[in-house]
Amino acid sequence: MNYFSILREAENLTSKKLGGCGTVGFAKIPFPLAYQFLTREYQKEMPYRSYLKSFEGIGHTNLLKLEKVPTLEGSRWFIEVETIEGTDKLSTNFAYYYGFVEVQQDKSLFKISRITLYPEDFLCAAYHGWDHDAEAVVDVKFGEWCGLIKKRMPTKKDGFVKTIEVIGKDGSDYKFIFFQLTNNTDVLISQYKRKPGGPWELSNLDPESCLNNKTRS
């Protein structure tokens, strides 16, 4: 994505978050150009000053993953980025974020209508919780909460993509696609349902609703 190619050499280090020896990359020169990749509506929500502030302390941005996410409408992309961030300790730290980019057509161009990023925690994923693991998420959320699973098939892994198929108690087959982050957390990206003899179709089963219904009953 050209947007991240421009941001790669952009930096917004501050007096409290320092890093590098002199000028880093192209300093703040790339930010105004990158800002033009946002739709006019998104720019109204986030003025340039706020946009620039969102990069405060960041000296380098590297796009690690970019994958289109199947949706019933619109255009959505999964991203993972690696940043080098300044500190107040005469050192720099690597930080990782994942999220989603929404894209809309603006006249003859496609522009970014929304970016949502989440920081990655390298201690939480390693030491806590079942919900960082794709197999456990499927077993607990779709098995225990929704009572969906009759049998879970072996996980298929291709690079950072994990695919889990299950045979449902309702006679349908289900498929769950996860992306594995740098900190080894598995993020559920999409889910599909296939009725007997039919094709795979996008599904939108909400495990939280299953749990709420189960709690109330």
Order of helices and strands: HHHHEEEEHHEEEEEEH
Rg (CA only): 21 Å
Tell me the distance between the termini: 48 Å
- Counted by DSSP, the helix tally is 7
Structure classification = alpha+beta
pLDDT < 50 stretches: none
**What portion of residues belong to β-strands?**
35-45%
Overall tally of structural domains: 2
Number of strands: 10
What does this structure look like?
The chain is 23% helix and 39% strand. The protein has 217 residues and is α+β, with helices and mostly antiparallel strands. The chain has two domains: 2-119, Nuclear Transport Factor 2, Chain: A; 128-206, Nuclear Transport Factor 2, Chain: A (Roll). The chain is globular and about 60 Å long.
List the helices and strands and how they pair.
Layout: H1 2-7, H2 30-35, H3 40-45, H4 48-53, E1 58-69, E2 75-86, E3 92-106, E4 109-119, H5 124-127, H6 134-145, E5 149-152, E6 156-158, E7 161-168, E8 173-180, E9 186-194, E10 201-203, H7 207-216
Antiparallel strand pairs: 1-2, 2-3, 3-4, 5-7, 6-7, 7-8, 8-9, 9-10
